[in-house]
Design a protein that fits this description.
The chain has helices at 12-27, 48-55, 72-85, 112-116, 122-136, 141-155, 169-174, 202-205, 246-258, 275-285, 293-298, 315-319, 323-339, and strands at residues 2-5, 36-40, 63-66, 91-99, 177-179, 182-183, 192-200, 214-221, 267-269, 352-359, 363-370. The chain is of the alpha/beta class and 371 residues long. Helix 1 (12-27) crosses helix 2, helix 5 (122-136) crosses helix 10 (275-285) and helix 6 (141-155) crosses helix 10 (275-285).
Length: 371
């Protein structure tokens, strides 16, 4: 990984080169050692992946840029895995790199009428989702503050995170209200960074000295029509639970592919673009029953030392979010967790891990790793 944060004078290409060099060195892969590359990016511009690999003199193979919002890296990983399973390639490079604009993100996903109505502003949409959680799951502002406290405590042990300082619930609730019920510290910061992994056929990786981690599933799903308040349509209102979310669709498919279930997981990295999104992720992934996210959080199960630590990296609330690198940053964290390399934030005995991201356009990515 290239750390997540703000880096004046460091380009998207610079960060991508740094992360790719680290990944290739760790994997013992040099020029000609991989047959294709997939690059996740949303704001990088034309041929972002080509620019990174051109700097390294490693071109000639297929280089594909992949955009799926926050899930861009997960989508790139899915494509790479599929190509290997199809027998097309033995070894594939997957990376993501991004320099996000400062401030509230303007996305071309929204229609002009949505922007004019104020429904395209990300915090407003997040707030509508949080308000729904207060109705369906008993979530309060105090629960939202607890998510931030937990993740910032975890992030204090992560040298790649933007924020490495613990914070109190009072400090969270004292930060200004952005859009009720969300306060400033309940929202992640769009920022800059890069992450990379090398994916190879399992029989070729069996002798790896770095510690073999298996990609058991990499799934991307989009929304189904009919949801009133979802990742796809930023409108307020309540519907029945007859329309599964993209996250639920992706998680269900990933668990089936990996032959595992939520009860088999030991560590999770999930989307926490705002504090309420993490709680909703608990329910949509199946870490608890529908409506049970506040109780799961309050039980302490999702803290380091709990039954199922969530976001031991500090999550996006600590790391910030460079869209194209976000999902792969989770994967890098979980690889280190499964190898037992995370020091103070290590989840002891972790063998099965899940990463989850949700990107604009209703792209939900779920990746399952085993070690």
């Amino acid at each position: 990984m290239h750390p997540f944060g703000r880096f004046e004078g460091v380009s998207t290409t610079d960060m991508g080169v740094d992360a790719v060099r680290q990944a290739l060195a760790e994997a013992g892969v040099g020029k000609g050692g991989f047959q294709a590359a997939f690059c996740g990016t949303a704001y990088g511009g034309v041929a972002t992946g080509h620019k990174v690999l051109s700097r390294l003199g490693m071109t000639g193979m297929p280089i594909v840029d992949v955009e799926a919002g926050c899930a861009s890296g997960g989508a790139a990983l899915m494509l790479a895995a599929a190509a290997i399973r199809a027998g097309q390639y033995d070894t594939v490079l997957v990376f993501g790199t991004e320099k996000m604009p400062k401030g509230i993100i303007r996305s071309s996903f929204f229609e002009p009428w949505q922007e004019e109505a104020g429904l395209a502003a990300t915090p407003a949409f997040f707030a509508l989702r949080a308000q729904r959680l207060t109705m369906t799951s008993g979530v309060t502002k105090e629960h939202l503050a607890q998510v931030v406290v937990k993740n910032r405590r975890h992030g204090a042990g992560n040298s790649d995170a933007m924020f490495q300082k613990e914070i109190s619930a009072d400090e969270v609730l004292s930060s200004r209200v952005v859009c009720e019920p969300l306060h400033l510290f309940m929202l992640c910061s769009p920022n800059e960074g890069a992450a990379a992994v090398v994916l190879t056929r399992d029989d070729r990786a069996s002798g790896s000295s770095a510690g073999a981690v298996t990609l058991a599933a990499a799934v991307l799903r989009s929304h189904l029509p009919g949801a009133v308040l979802s990742e796809s349509t930023p409108l307020s209102g309540l519907t029945g639970d007859t329309v599964p979310s993209p996250t639920t669709l992706a998680a269900t498919a990933a668990f089936e592919e990996a032959a595992l279930g939520p009860g088999d997981l030991h560590v999770v990295e999930c989307q926490d673009t705002d504090a309420a999104r993490e709680l909703l992720s608990y329910e949509e992934i199946g870490l608890c029953e529908s409506g049970g996210s506040a109780a799961l959080l309050s039980s302490g199960a999702t803290m380091l030392g709990g039954r199922l630590p969530v976001n031991p990296s500090g999550g996006l609330l600590s790391k910030g979010e460079p869209l194209g690198a976000s999902a792969l940053g989770q994967v890098v964290e979980l690889v280190h967790q499964l190898r037992g390399e995370c020091g103070a934030r290590q989840v002891e005995g972790a063998r099965n891990a899940l990463a989850h991201t949700v990107g604009r356009g209703a792209n939900a990515s779920v990746v399952i790793l085993t070690g």
